[in-house]
Amino acid sequence: MTELRTSRLILRPARPEDAPCFALGVSDFAVARWLTPLPFPFTLAMASDWLRAAPSDNPDKSLFIVDLPGRGLVGCVAIGAELGFWIAKRHWGQGFGTEAASAVIDWHFTRTTSDAIVSSAHHDNRASLRLKAKLGFVETGRDMRFSHALQHNVPHVLTRLDRETWRARAEQLCA
Fold it and tell me: Could you tell me which residue ranges the N-acetyltransferase domain spans (predicted)?
């Protein structure tokens, strides 16, 4: 099982004991309103099932628990058809999303031949769109998606990060 480490975080496979914190994190409406595909409210039973079925150790489809040593679960990053992530509200504004997503993107591009990663966000989720822009994602279009928490369709911004953009960004950071 793959475990990724950053300067502050451990990104690791899900464990059954993560279910209570996972359920609490995504059941906070301030978080849930941005998580289009997840049911709301998200119960402990749902979290247990979700985490039990979570793929791991596959660079094309994996879920990582974002763990802050000494504090525990602070969020989640998943990569599959799209890159997705959430950070518990009490940990917003500390750069954990950028740090965790960067590690997963590095891991993905190192272990696959994929030319790009796609992602999306609600059109008014400025924090997520800023984070993606910082990572090098560019807007490729817009669509409508049903939000379970909001119970209606919401406009989504579609974004894409290609391997060459990511590599150039990494080279700039090392220069």
Answer: 9-164
Report which residue type is found at 1: M
Neighbour-count burial for 125-153, b at 16+ CB within 10 Å, e otherwise: beebbebbeebbbeeeeeeeeebbbeeee
Q: Please, are residues 61 and 83 in contact by the beta-carbon 8 Å criterion?
A: no
Q: Which of 142, 124, 160 is nearest to 34 (CA)?
A: 124
Please name each of the domains of the chain with its CATH number.
4-174 (3.40.630.30)
Rounded CA gap, 24 and 31, in Å?
10
Q: 126-135 and 96-111 helices cross at what angle (nearest 10)?
A: 40
- Distance in angstroms (rounded) separating the CA atoms of residues 175 and 160: 24
Q: What single-letter amino acid sits at 134?
A: K
Q: Which of 18-27, 43-52, 54-63 has the lowest mean pLDDT?
A: 54-63
Give the Cβ contact number of residue 106 at 10 Å: 14
Per residue in 74-121, pLDDT (tens digit) is 999 999 999 999 999 999 999 999 999 999 999 999 999 999 999 999
Cα 131 to the chain's mean position, in Å?
11
* φ, ψ at 41 (rounded to 5°): -70, 155
Q: 14-26 pLDDT, tens per residue?
A: 999 999 999 999 9
